[in-house]
Amino acid sequence: MTGKILRLEITPLEALSFRYSGEFSPVARGPAVLGQTLLMPLPSTLLGALSYIACTTMSRTTNGSILENYKVVCSFMKTTDVYIRGPYLIINDNIYLLLDNLLIKLLDKINENTVRAYIRLKIAELEGMKEKVNELRRLFDKMIVPVQFLGIGLKPEVKVVYREAPGLLYLAEFVDYLSLLSERVGKSIVNSVSINYDIVLRDSSITTN
Questions:
Q1: In terms of Cα–Cα distance, which of 89, 91, 79 is closest to 39?
Q2: What residue segments make up the domains of the chain, in order of their start?
Q3: What is the pLDDT of residues 158-193, one digit of tens each?
Q4: pTM for the full model?
Q5: Rounded mean pLDDT, 87-115
Q6: Per residue in 79-103, is it b (16+ CB within 10 Å) or e — as a string?
Q7: What DSSP string runs through 57-86?
């Protein structure tokens, strides 16, 4: 069986929000609602994006299910077996994984000492040992923390903020990878960062076009 790996690179141009599923409108959920973000899009989110491209290109539609999206992507890529591997970050040509929100540089494999430090960190968090948590976090290259922005939900007919009915303030989380630029990760100053996935095709009839 032959195979082919395609790397999909997402270069952030601004702060991004990879929202959890569910309604987040302040009108629907009440005041001071928080729209949380994942640190990276799920593989299923990427599959949906690939399915959209495939459907647009081939003039097809799906019912939006993961299975149907998978089938149309396989058809588009002329294979019967495709899977998505990732996500991971590439910072200055180095590969990093996110373990929770901690950046870990990936060499051939994750260092055993890194795994032990992470386990000790999680235990310290569970036991509420703040000083120990801060000490252990310094062993990692960087910690990615979402930023929050305050928003005001306006009704369609109301354009002036002070005339809005009370209780429509909301918070939205974003992850800002561009904030890493010009900062130091490990021993190097960051000059490039991207989110990456591997799209692995495994089939004897794969084309190279």
A1: 89
A2: 3-101+144-202
A3: 444 444 455 566 778 888 888 888 787 777 788 889
A4: 0.71
A5: 78
A6: beebebebbbbbbeeeebebeeebb
A7: HHT----S-HHHHHHHHHHHTT-S-EEEEE
